[in-house]
Write a structure and sequence with these properties.
single chain; about 140 residues; 7 helices
């Protein structure tokens, strides 16, 4: 459901959160550590810089660094910054005109799932993801309808 750009963006922000906020991390370092193609990652990080999610600096001491406190940066913020609000608003079947008035076959079920995702992603910070080792210790409310 999330694009590869979004997935790579989230991975990069988690990496930056773990590296601390005291230095600009070279893009090639992130690319190598996460096995993400460098040119693709550069474009993703440039987009995140334009959205003020990361700060960037060119030159020998250049790279990227988180702009804001990773405790305040949520998964929802990142998904919307990279992919837009579609995950939380669009029809899961991609049917044009799907709405309350003209619902698709999955509309009612997807509305509940989408609300759960929106709420859960808004509660989950990049810092929390960075502290997790395969288990983000999600709050029970993440899964609540």
């Amino acid at each position: 459901m999330m694009s590869k750009r979004c997935t790579y963006g989230i991975q990069s922000l988690v990496y930056l959160s773990r590296e601390g906020r005291d230095r600009f991390v070279p893009v090639h370092e992130i690319s190598e550590a996460l096995s993400i193609p460098g040119s693709f990652l550069s474009k993703i990080l440039a987009e995140l810089a334009s959205q003020h999610v990361v700060d960037s600096r060119k030159g020998p001491q250049g790279g990227v660094m988180l702009h804001a406190d990773p405790e305040q940066l949520t998964l929802h913020d990142v998904v919307v910054a990279i992919d837009g609000p579609g995950l939380f608003e669009a029809c899961v079947l991609g049917m044009p005109g799907c709405s309350q008035e003209a619902p698709c076959p999955l509309h009612a079920h997807w509305n509940e799932t989408r609300a759960c995702l929106r709420r859960g992603f808004a509660q989950l910070s990049i810092a929390r993801l960075a502290m997790a080792d395969g288990d983000a210790n999600l709050p029970a409310s993440f899964f609540a309808p």
